Amino acid sequence: MENTRSKKMSALSLEDRLGAINRLRQPVWVYDFDNATVAWSNQGALELWQSDSLAALQARDLKSDMTETVSKRLRQYQTDFLRDETIQFREIWTLYPNGQPSTVEVVFGALWLDDGRMGMICEALPEAQFDNEALRSSEALLHTSVMITLYSAEGIPLYRNPAARSAARNFAETLQDHFACEESMQLLQSSEEEEVNTVASVHTSDGKRWHDITARRCHDAVSGDSAWLISEVDVSRLKATEERAQFLAEHDTLTGLPNRNYVSMVFKSHIEQIQAKGGKGALIFIDLDHFKDINDSLGHDAGDTLLIKVASRLKSLALGNDNVARLGGDEFLLLLGPINSGSDARKVAREVKKQLSKPFTLQGRKVRVTPSIGISVFPADGRNINDLMRHADLAMYHSKDNGRNDFSFFTKELSEAVESRINLESELMVALHEGQFVTYFQPRVDVQTNTITGAEALVRWIHPDRGLVSPAAFIPACEASGLIGTLGKFVLSQSVMAQKEWAKQGHNVRVSVNLSPLQFGEDSLVNDLLSIVKDNGGHPENLELEITESVLLGHDQGTIDKLHALVDSGFRIAIDDFGTGYSNLAYLHRYPIRCLKIDRSFISQLDTAQPIVELIVSMARLFKLDVVAEGVETQEQLQALRNYDCQEYQGFLFERPIDFNSFTALLNQHEESVAA
Ligand code: C2E
Ligand code: CA
Ligand code: CA
After folding, report:
1. Which ligand is nearest to the CA of 599?
2. Atom 13 of ligand 1, residue of closest alpha carbon
3. Ligand 1, residues 514, 604, 636: which to mutate, most atoms within 8 A of Cβ?
4. Label partner for 357 (CA 20 to 30 A): which of 110, 381, 487, 655?
């Protein structure tokens, strides 16, 4: 009760101070908040309270008849008076002196009790007529937790209900001062509507809170002047939950950085704002090189720790609030702006590279990562977030292609290259569907006897406009888009069907089919190939699969197992373009290989490459491998191969790759000439 006690103890008692009031007929009494009793009353009030004597009234415990809301509200009055003892309230009260309701309009004011505590002097106004409606609404106004305030049009407070009084920092606080930000007041003033609803941050006796506010234009019943009736509900908790949910939706839980959602909302509008003022900016796209290796070798926890550390280094670049985002995985995005020119972005990119290239400590060891960075500048490289991100991403990939750990700016050429690749990819998809691919065959020939020993299947694209397109122009795009698997299966099935047709005509032709490294990597490779061969009525024994040296590079057990599985299924394996890769001849015995195809480049430069070709041929004989020389165009080359004792060759000298019918004709004609 200490806070209700004033320092100034009155020299005069209530009786002395209020004796004169005794003579008034108007009921006046003094209420003791702390004890919930009447401390003093005049004759009129004794009658109102239906008490025979002052002593009897003073002895009455009012708490027993009082609801929780009323006692709370009374405590509020006490606080109000302690803050400002000059204020008065005028309210319609219903008293229950002996259980019977009696309604009076009462004016309340502060009054210090004899012992220095804050009490309340209450004066019942001359009898007024109250209709039930008015009574109930005023009761509601007093009891409700909704804060209701009437302000003049200028924002001066005219009336506050108890809830509003309790929330106000001081009684004189204007509507303008009530709002924590100017925009809310502007919103009210600028609105044409009779009623405005908004959730705003406001000042209260509890500090800053969020209130759901309904402001109604009305007239002050007393003066008739226009006024604001403001009702407010505290929605801070709701708002906090909402904000937390919003935060979670827009931030990455691992690093706490803004996420992709945030980028598409907030970065987007920052970019628009900068451009609206005629400014420039940049997006910097960062991807960590070989992050997967760290995850794989040190575990995901270490990977997570690394991402957190990377995030904090990027944040420490201090580019401004929330201008660093994590897009997912090991991808980060910085927004710069406004900047003077692209060279500002270059400086930042250099700094990013420097910061991230310093070693990180993970699980007690030093780990190094490098970033690949791509930059797009606006408005030059695009005006909207989507274009800018796509372009920065493209530039980042360009950095990766250029050997990583570097940054690149977006250029028109980059996007043109991508555009034509995308066009090509979609054209290829159509080509597969519409049967624009055809398998050609090039004969493989015995060096000594010049008889056909087999054929290599080589795919061709018969483009409706461009005519015959060479595989060099579309195989890389097929690999990039993942179409290579489907294309490879198509070529294999065509080869098996051709073989069957030739067999019917009495020709046993072994066909070699090229396998892209990407195709070789597919888990289902062995089963897929086997079922295609079987479905088309062929035999794996009549097929050879050509793989490149790059497939063998890893020397890993998975590759060896897969090769063995293919061989066990009956396929023969050949190494294509032999000599151009890194394979060490001495390692060849590790793999179940049957044939080496010497790359065309050695044959076309036989004068200088002669020792290499001789070496390959003799090594192959040692390991009991077949050898095929590719790209033989002249009689001199063929003669040289005879001298080295090379077994087979392929080349324009004998025949170019030709279509099925031509190859069939060649087989028949060839047989005749051999027979003749
Ligand atoms: P490759 O496997 O090395 O095929 C041999 C290439 O040499 C063929 O080119 C062939 O036409 C060419 N060639 C043959 N003899 C001569 C000659 O005497 N002189 C010259 N200058 N060239 C000769 P093509 O058909 O343009 O194929 C290029 C590459 O495309 C192939 O090289 C192969 O890597 C790939 N490819 C072709 N078809 C397929 C396929 O069905 N699947 C896969 N994965 N790749 C294929
Ligand atoms: Ca080949
Ligand atoms: Ca080749």
Report:
1. 3
2. 631
3. 514
4. 381
The reply to whether 415 falls in a domain is no
Q: Which helix (H) or strand (E) holds 102?
A: strand 102-112
Q: Is the CB of 161 under 6 A from ligand 1?
A: no
Q: Is 596 a domain residue?
A: yes
Which residue lies with its CA nearest to atom 44 of ligand 1? 516
- Judge if the beta carbon of residue 281 lies within 6 A of ligand 1: no
Same domain membership, residue 275 and residue 217: no
The predicted pLDDT at position 9 comes to 60
Distance 125 CA to ligand 3 centre (A): 111
- CA 71 – CA 26 distance, rounded (Å): 25
Do 187 and 130 lie in one domain? The reply is no
The CATH number covering residue 349 comes to 3.30.70.270
The SS3 call for residue 94 is strand
Contact 357, 368 (CB under 8 A): yes
Q: Nearest 5°: CA angle at 166, between 164 and 168?
A: 65
Last residue of a domain, one of 410, 441, 475: 410
Identify which ligand lies nearest to the alpha carbon of 580: 3
The finding on whether 459 has its CB within 6 A of some atom of ligand 1 is yes
Number of domains in the chain: 4
631 close to ligand 1 (CB < 6 Angstrom): yes
With 0.90 as the threshold, say if the pTM is over it.
no
The pLDDT score that the predictor gives to residue 1 is 43
207-219/331-339 β-pairing: unpaired
Q: What is the mean pLDDT of residues 287-312?
A: 91
**The ligand 1 atom nearest the CA atom of 650:** 15
- Same domain? 225 vs 161: yes
Query: Which tokens belong to 39?
Result: 């401390």
**Ligand (nearest to CA of 544):** 2
Give distance in angstroms: CA of 455 to centre of ligand 2: 10
3 state DSSP class of 8: coil
Averaged over 9-37, what is the pLDDT? 83
Q: What is the pLDDT of residue 284?
A: 96
Which ligand does the CA of 483 lie closest to? 1
Q: How far apart are CA 178 and CA 171, in angstroms?
A: 11
- Domain range for 365: 251-410
Q: How far is the CA of 442 from the centre of ligand 1 (A)?
A: 9
Q: Are residues 194 and 51 in the same domain?
A: no
Residue 356 falls inside a structural domain = yes
Question: What is the rounded CA–CA span in Å between residue 122 and residue 29?
Answer: 5
Is the confidence at residue 608, as pLDDT, over 80? yes
Same domain membership, residue 347 and residue 200: no
Does 3 map to a domain?
Answer: no
C-alpha of residue 468 to centroid of ligand 2, in Å:
19
Q: Of 40-44, 107-111, 398-402, give the lowest mean pLDDT range.
A: 398-402
User: Is pLDDT of 11 > 70?
Assistant: no
Place of tokens 């900047």: 339
Ligand 1 neighbour 475 (Cβ under 6 A): yes
Do 536 and 647 share a domain, yes or no? yes
Residue 212: which CATH number?
3.30.450.20
The average confidence (pLDDT) of the chain is 89
> Domain check: are 495 and 532 in the same one?
yes
* Ion ligand 3 contact residues with beta carbon within 5 A: 576-577, 630
Cα radius of gyration (the chain): 46
Which of 240, 267, 297 is the last residue in one of the domains?
Answer: 240
